[in-house]
Structures are given as C-alpha cells and as structure tokens.
Amino acid sequence: DVKVTQSSRYLVKRTGEKVFLECVQDMDHENMFWYRQDPGLGLRLIYFSYDVKMKEKGDIPEGYSVSREKKERFSLILESASTNQTSMYLCASSGGLNTEAFFGQGTRLTVV
Amino acid sequence: AQRVTQPEKLLSVFKGAPVELKCNYSYSGSPELFWYVQYSRQRLQLLLRHISRESIKGFTADLNKGETSFHLKKPFAQEEDSAMYYCALRGNNRLAFGKGNQVVVIP
Known about the structure:
Largest interface: A-B, 25 and 22 residues
Number of strands of chain B: 11
Number of strands of chain A: 11
Structural class of chain A: mainly beta
Mean pLDDT of chain B: 93
Largest sheet of chain A: 7 strands, mixed
Helix content of chain A: under 10%
Distance between the termini of chain A: 34 Å
Low-confidence stretches of chain B: none
Oligomer: heterodimer
Structural class of chain B: mainly beta
Strand content of chain A: over 45%
Mean pLDDT of chain A: 95
Shape of chain B: globular
C-alpha cells in the first residue's frame, strides 16, 4: 500500500544537465514537500506546496525549482545540476493540522 | 522563522538502559511537534506526535512550551530501537526537521 512514490531510486546525471525528480501521492493531500538528506545535516527543506500551483521556498531553494500542476504530483527541478547537489532527495505529503507526513522511498542523485 | 535543534548526533546506549533524545524548537505561533524515525533501509515514518500524548513502542515525548522542548524518552532501550530519529515542527504549512540523532543500542 505505497502512498508516496518517487519516480527513480537512483539517478546519475552530468554537471549542467536539467534534472527532473517526480513525486506522486495517492492520499489527496494538500501539502507536499521536497527535502534533501545529507549526513550530519538532517533533512533540509527545499520547497513545499500547500495547494495546486502554489509553492513556497524552503530553507535551501537555490539551484532548484518546483512544479505542481496537479494535486497528486510535485516535481523538483534542478535547472543545471552541479556536483554539490549530489544527495538523497525525499518527497513527502501530508493533510491538515497535526496529521502525519508520509515519505517516499527517496532518490539517490549523483551528479558527476 | 521556525527552527528545530537536536544537539547530539550519535547516541550509543546499552540494551535495557534509558534513552533520551533532546529536541528544542523556536516558533512564534502554536507548534505542531512530531518525532519521526528511519530504520535501516526503510522510509522515514512517524513515531509520535505531541497532540496524541500517547506511547508508541515504549517512547513518549512531552511538549514543554516554557522550555520550548519536545524531548523523546524510553525507559528501557531495545536493539530494534537502533535507528535515526528526527524531531519535526510544523507551522504555516512548513514542516521543518532537526539534524537527527543516530541511536545505536548495544546488545
């Protein structure tokens, strides 16, 4: 009963490439989030969205953009991938107040 | 701005010993606080939330608004508690996490 699905488990991209990370949830949640997870740095919020076509910057939005054209899908875009964007990327979704966030399995992105 | 601070990165405890993971937060509004756990090779998942005031897998956490803390406690650690633990705060639709604690339970 997978609820949040990320399109790729592993990705290897070249410096300068445009990279798309896709996330789909099947719980009709309003809120969706993108994080990167790095050892010693925890989960850092990149962008989040609280409704279709709505987006807000998180703590580290530089070098990233997002798209939310449909409620169930939230895409993270690396406009021009760089080696310092090598990381584990996690997508999550949640409903209203005090509700649980559900996470995807993560995408391990390596930029070479 | 909201911030979550987890001071220790690695915590090693013997089986049967108490575990306490500290979490402090800063937020101007009324916070929603959570603890999430990530076991090896598994997804991040909810452990407990402050609104529920319940014990999950023997863990409890009490929100102390005066000290802006939400520490996680378990009186007797088990080997299956070895995992990464994250404190999280939700406010203004944003869900922010601390840096996490790696807990290793020694048999």
